[in-house]
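Figure-free illustration: sequence to structure, shown twice.
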Amino acid sequence: MDALLVAGDVFDGINPSGEAQRLLYAAIADFLRANPRLQIVMTAGNHDPAQRLEAPEAVLAALGVHVIGTLRQGPDGVDMDRHLIALRDSSDTIRAYVLAVPFLRAADLPGLQLGAVGGTEPAVTAAARALHLGMAKAATARAKDLPLLAMGHLTCAAGLESEGAERRILIGGEHAVPPDIFPPTLSYVALGHLHRPQSLDGGRVRYFGSPFPLSAAEITYDHGVTLLDLDEGLVPRHISLPRPVAMHRLPERGAAPLADVAAALAALNLSPDTPRNANLSSISRSSPTAR
């Protein structure tokens, strides 16, 4: 059984270009050509146009690709038929379930009363905890003894942010929730949003991070993907990815006169045959860096 989980920020803006969308669908096609039985679960992040991401859902579902852009709820709560996805092996036996949760907005949180006082924890944390507890309870009733994985897109307290590279998601003045909002019945939680690969709660809750640097602050990160093996107890294993394009900061630390930065840029001896979109520099007086 092979599955690919993509926990949000598929695009970097709510109005992605046609070329960006073509790249996404070309990548999905390449994955499925390489592994026709690959199951893909993709959820929206805070940067994504959630409904546009869901638009080709009927076609993608026929290919085994599940796209969850918004949280769908009804009178009885979250639509578990939509958000709980079975992962099957080559014999069509269910081996695990994925609770696919996209980026949550204030309207998605049950009973949220911003500015409420007197509770044991902030209102947003309490509402997020109640939502995940309810979903986990409903999912466990269906999954029974099978592993139950979850996906989310938010900031967890103690998660390390990238300076100047990540937008803080604010709901009612709060931007982070404790990782224990995810009940222990969830065997593993795959989170999107933070770019640095990192584990919380002993590895049960993990940010797999972005696949390449998205700012100069991330040059030193060991970007990659996270591999889970059902037969190895769902212990996350980081797999580094080679960078398609080298990224430099000039100078490596602090600031330098513009002439020194230009000299260091020239010393990189970049090939004149490098494609334009892979050979860019950005230099400013306030932040003398070159990328």
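We now fold a second protein in the same way, so the two outputs can be compared directly.
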Amino acid sequence: MDADEPATPQAERRRQLLGGELRAIVPLALAVLLVVVAVIVLGREAERHLQTIEATIAGLGMWGRVAFVGLLVVGTSMLVPESLFGLVAGALFGLGWGIGLLLVGNLIAAALQYGLARRLLHARIQRALETRPLLRSIQSAVIRDELRLQVLLRLTPLNPALISYLLGAAGVRFAGFMLASLVLLSHYAIEAYIGHAGKQWLSRGFAGTREDWQHGLPIYAATAVGVLAIILVSKAAHRAVLRAIAENSAGPAATRKP
């Protein structure tokens, strides 16, 4: 029984990160499910509603894009999954604008979350970590290996805002923090593409001709590959973070910054 005890914290960390992986997939899975239901139940009516929304946003011009960025900053700072905004951006703004807005919005959100964690929420976050051993272990490890572990954390399924708050409270350097945040650009591109592909799928519906399905096949295949890529990268980063935490626990106690 005693021989199993040292493995218990590691097993618990794996369980918690696995739960994070599953939660990260849920928004994408729900989005695909909603598109399928919309196509089956509403058909062309759903397409008309989407066109109405697009026309309204287009009528707002640049202010529509500014409003989206503002909603993204506020929503993600309240721990709303970023991937939901990624899908919406791709569907409503297209690939180019969608990826650009996601990048700008998420960088602003990350900077805001860093500032809040460093100046206003530091004590509250540190108290919360007392009951969250996984996050406390991550924070301790990142202090010793800042940039590499920050990049890996950005690729895990943990909520990006949660990571920003955690890193801000840890006192990592702001320049490295923002640099690591850029790693998620590939995720933004995949999410925007999935949203864009979902819109194309909704427009075609299930009543298209054989030629329509053949034309749309690359879109569906690329969507599947994108989702698979996110899952595989997340799992690889998951394992690397666990190794870093184990190395930090095995070594001398981390020197915490004031």
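Summary for the second example: The chain has one domain: 8-250.
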